[in-house]
Write a structure and sequence with these properties.
With 76 residues, this protein is α+β, with helices and mostly antiparallel strands. Helix content is 36%, strand content 24%. The chain is built from three helices and four strands; from the N terminus they run E-H-E-H-E-H-E. It has helices at residues 11-23, 35-38, 53-62, and strands spanning 4-8, 28-31, 44-48, 69-72. Strands 2-3-1-4 form a four-stranded antiparallel beta sheet, with helices on one face.
C-alpha cells in the first residue's frame, strides 16, 4: 500500500528516486501532488509504503535528493 509521499524538487529527481528504490527492493510510484498541498505548481514526488520511510529517507540523502516534504496517507 502506498500510504506515504515524499515531495521532491523535479520530475527527474522523482524518477531517479523510484528507479533507485526499486533497485533496493522498495516499490514506489512517481506522483504529481496538487499545488494546494505543496504550495508549488511544479512539485513532483514519490509514494511508497510508510514502513520503508527511514530507509527511503536514508537512500534519498545518500543520493543527494533533498525532500521538500513528507506526507501521510496522501490519496490521489
Amino acid at each position: 500500500m502506498y500510504d506515504c509521499m515524499i515531495v521532491l524538487r523535479s520530475t527527474s529527481a522523482a524518477q531517479r528516486a523510484v528507479r533507485g528504490l526499486s533497485e533496493n527492493g522498495i516499490p514506489a510510484i512517481p506522483v504529481r501532488p496538487p499545488a494546494a498541498l505543496t504550495g508549488s505548481p511544479c512539485a513532483h514526488g514519490i509514494k511508497f509504503d510508510r514502513r520503508f520511510l527511514p530507509t527511503v529517507q536514508s537512500l534519498l540523502s545518500h543520493w543527494q535528493l533533498d525532500p521538500r516534504g513528507v506526507y501521510d496517507s496522501y490519496k490521489g
